[in-house]
Amino acid sequence: MALILKERPIKNNQSYVKNAQIEDERYRRFQERGPLGAILHSIGTPQPLAEPIAAYFDDPSVEASVHMVLQPDGLCLQLAPENYRLWHVGGQANETHLGIEMTEPAAIRYDSSRGFTPIILDRQAALSHIRSCYDRGVELFAYLCQKYGWDPLQDGVILSHREAFTRGLGSNHGDPEHLWQALETGYTMDGFRKAVAQAMKSPLVEDGENEDQEGKEMRYETLGDVRKDPNGKYYLPTLEFLLQKGYLQGRGGKGDDLILDLSEDALRILVTLHRAGAYDK
Prior knowledge:
281 residues; alpha/beta; 7-stranded mixed sheet; two-stranded antiparallel sheet; globular
């Protein structure tokens, strides 16, 4: 499965605005030099889709931000230019690294009394999401390393938010290792970096402008598109449930014109989670 990069600028975000205005020398320096590496994040909330995360960041009252948000079907929303200095890691690494956020499965929940340790509601559904995000993350970081000439095995080029914290470069977070460990995946950042190095041998990213080429995965722009597609009947009960509950809000429009912009793979994941009871309270 290849990545699909799609621009989704968060122009209302305070960090984005300060970059656009080049508020001070920190922003100018980052823009002129570009990133020296990238930080892997995991959002810390049970949200499997990238768009609601982008919508959260695209708000004048929000200062934190990341460059990209990646969901398990390979869709990667680019929220800001890669030469923008964004506030994603809460420390010195903001001055040098990109911030890449992975979504998290709906089949978990968090309790503040448990710190970084999530409560697993459906192990198999959660594992499916995490494994797909990990694989797509490897592809995305391989693409970035190819683009910028980074060596993924060089110390400090690729870090997790947890590693940035332990090095004094970021705020006190445990992601994404907290989720990998909770699900006993066996994933580590050393393994991630080695997988990135291996993946750099092949092209991995598709341009979002070419999504309609023959053979590409079906994408549904609106709710009406789902209704028109013969396969849509399998997805509609879940979509209508999520919309009614407010778990899915779309990106504008009403009724059948409600903008979803979801891949068929994303819909399959939502249906699987729905049938597994991940949205039950």
